[in-house]
Backbone:
């Protein structure tokens, strides 16, 4: 009786859903929008809670520098200029904080599920909604949409460009070409590996053509042929027949195109103006982001040149026709130079050494082995359901179990090749590489999950309780895995090594309290010194890879770039310089223990920062002077970057519990 009531309730729910889809032609769009709104909420919630990562602090510093100085020049080491410009605009209307610097990435990542609608001619309604759900809820995309790096940006923009290209092919409407151009330009302005997306599309196109020409009927037909151990003659007849069929396919395709269209010349002429204008859109958007601002390179060097001293920058070039050619030339030369630098690590890995091929292969393996490990861990622990369903969806498409569509293998090729290719083409093995795998695989994954749900629905129609229960169990298990991974990897456990999404340069969360203390002190302390950074080891004991303060006092007011405070080993101390700049903290440095002890006795600076690796720290004298220590790990893997924040007791901080 209970079983009958349950089946009746499930039938009723299914019928209501079917009726809604039948009565409302925009039901799919509404569901995708609802999923997108959920994704946006999940990305914005508690967005500023995590302490800034090394990379976040570095890029946010330069965005704030652009806002304050008005000068910008493209540098590949900071990656694409998009986020620097957008964050600089955000910082003009809102205070520079961890929340505001991440907000643009969160919004773009949150809107990514809308791209599912661009493929609706090739996906069923349920597949479209499930694709949006994968893009909205996958823990990899959730985590890195809440992380101020450009990987989600380039993935979202290039995937949108691909979707718009598909829409152009579907509809032949020229307006989509302009969308392709604009989003591709935004992708290239976000990060240099946008070029990898283009190469991936070309490679996937080649594999798709091979599939169409070699295995047009899918793998099932090929397996059936080989199972019977064919003779040489049968193999030859099959190959020759396949070649003749492919030639006929090409000829018929050309004839069909001619029958449905005017001459090739007239078609080309009809689209030529749109293609040219779309290329101009791409060029102008790229110029807008890559062109120098203010004094350009001189404005970000130390000491920085005033913004008004720049000979040519974007605004002077676009408002003065005589300067525009020079603006284009300067921008182009800078982009070529920096892209050449960016390509160097990958090209060095792919080049054989003078010692021979074997040594080269061994060196190559050593250089990428760790990269694959990090990527596969991130995918395995946080995107396993999506990966498994993508394999299942691809297999269903190739075996003809579902209606074969070119989009499914195309996206699968792009995702699987990215697993192999990205670790080779990067200089740092990091979990954010998983973003570029997950996004394209959302398409075959949606096909696979939708097939399971339809199987359960068909079982329900025949009152097959077992089949319906298995399908429901699979869906519930996947849901539970995603919820658990999101809770334990995205919103909590944001520093420990047990989280495969955390890259090693992520500071410990305990630092947040002392950052708030620093902000409070800087606000109330006037123009005096707020923080003293100390590192006293010298000579052979000096650790240049980890020390925060430069060893040579003569270099304390010297720097190639305008990286303040200049007395610091700036990159070693990240993300602290971002917080110093954002909170207007006055920082000085010291490397003599006796002088530091005297300062803390006489001047009593509010905060002193030391490092655990430094054996010269006068800890007892600091405690005697009224300073309370609290130690934080600034890098997940390396204890050499443990940092101690000493706050004077007069500022009321509770001792570390």
Residues:
């Amino acid at each position: 009786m209970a079983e009958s009531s349950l089946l009746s309730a499930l039938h009723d729910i299914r019928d209501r859903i079917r009726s809604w889809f039948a009565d409302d032609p925009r039901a799919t769009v509404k569901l995708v929008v609802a999923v997108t709104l959920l994704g946006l909420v999940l990305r914005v919630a508690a967005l500023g809670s995590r302490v800034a990562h090394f990379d976040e602090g570095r890029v946010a510093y330069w965005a704030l520098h652009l806002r304050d100085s008005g000068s910008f020049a493209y540098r590949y080491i900071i990656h694409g200029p998009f986020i620097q410009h957008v964050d600089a605009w955000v910082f003009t209307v809102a205070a520079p904080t961890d929340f505001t610097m991440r907000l643009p990435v969160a919004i773009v990542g949150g809107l990514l599920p809308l791209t599912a609608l661009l493929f609706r001619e090739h996906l069923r309604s349920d597949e479209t909604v499930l694709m949006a759900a994968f893009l909205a809820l996958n823990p990899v995309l959730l985590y890195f949409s809440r992380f101020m790096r450009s990987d989600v940006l380039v993935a979202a923009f290039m995937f949108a460009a691909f979707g718009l290209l598909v829409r152009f092919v579907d509809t032949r409407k020229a307006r989509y070409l302009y969308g392709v151009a604009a989003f591709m330009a935004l992708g290239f302005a976000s990060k240099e590996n946008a070029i990898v997306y283009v190469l991936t599309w070309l490679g996937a196109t080649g594999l798709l053509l091979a599939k169409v020409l070699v295995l047009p009927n899918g793998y099932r037909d090929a397996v059936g042929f080989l199972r019977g151990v064919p003779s040489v003659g049968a193999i030859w007849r099959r190959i020759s027949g396949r070649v003749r069929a492919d030639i006929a396919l090409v000829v018929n395709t050309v004839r069909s195109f001619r029958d449905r269209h005017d001459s090739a010349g007239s078609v080309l002429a009809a689209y030529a103006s749109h293609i040219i204008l779309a290329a101009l859109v791409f060029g102008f958007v790229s110029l807008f982001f890559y062109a120098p601002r203010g004094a350009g390179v001189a404005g970000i060097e130390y000491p920085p040149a005033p913004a008004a001293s720049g000979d040519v920058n974007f605004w002077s070039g676009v408002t003065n026709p005589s300067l525009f050619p020079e603006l284009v030339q300067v921008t182009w030369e800078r982009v070529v130079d920096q892209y050449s630098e960016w390509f160097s690590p990958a090209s060095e890995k792919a080049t054989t050494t003078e010692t021979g091929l074997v040594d080269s292969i061994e060196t190559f393996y050593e250089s990428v082995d760790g990269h694959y490990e990090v990527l596969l861990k991130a995918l395995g622990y946080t995107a396993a359901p999506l990966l498994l369903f993508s394999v299942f969806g691809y297999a269903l498409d190739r075996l003809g179990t579902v209606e074969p569509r070119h989009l499914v293998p195309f996206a699968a090729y792009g995702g699987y090749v990215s697993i192999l290719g990205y670790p080779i083409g990067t200089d740092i093995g990091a979990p954010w590489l998983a973003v570029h795998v997950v996004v394209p695989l959302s398409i075959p994954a949606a096909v696979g999950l939708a097939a399971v749900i339809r199987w359960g629905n068909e079982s329900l129609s025949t009152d097959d309780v077992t089949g319906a229960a298995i399908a429901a169990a699979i869906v519930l298990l996947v849901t539970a895995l995603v919820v658990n991974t999101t809770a334990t990897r995205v919103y909590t456990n944001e520093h420990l090594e047990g989280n495969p999404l955390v890259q090693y340069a992520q500071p410990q969360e305990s630092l947040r309290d002392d950052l708030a203390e620093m902000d409070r002190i800087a606000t109330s302390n006037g123009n005096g010194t707020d923080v003293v950074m100390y590192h006293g080891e010298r000579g052979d004991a000096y650790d240049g890879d980890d020390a925060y303060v430069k060893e040579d006092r003569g270099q304390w007011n010297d720097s190639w770039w305008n990286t303040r405070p200049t007395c610091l080993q700036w990159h070693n101390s990240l993300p602290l310089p971002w917080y110093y700049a954002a909170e207007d903290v006055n920082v000085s440095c010291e490397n003599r223990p006796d002088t530091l002890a005297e300062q803390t006795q006489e001047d009593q600076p509010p905060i002193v920062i030391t490092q655990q690796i430094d054996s010269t720290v006068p800890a007892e004298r600091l405690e005697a002077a009224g300073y309370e220590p609290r130690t934080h790990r600034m890098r997940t893997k390396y204890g050499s970057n443990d940092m101690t924040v000493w706050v004077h007791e007069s500022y009321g901080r509770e001792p570390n519990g």
Q: What stands out?
A: The beta strands are 531-534, 587-590, 607-611, 627-633, 642-648. The first strand starts at residue 531 and ends at 534.
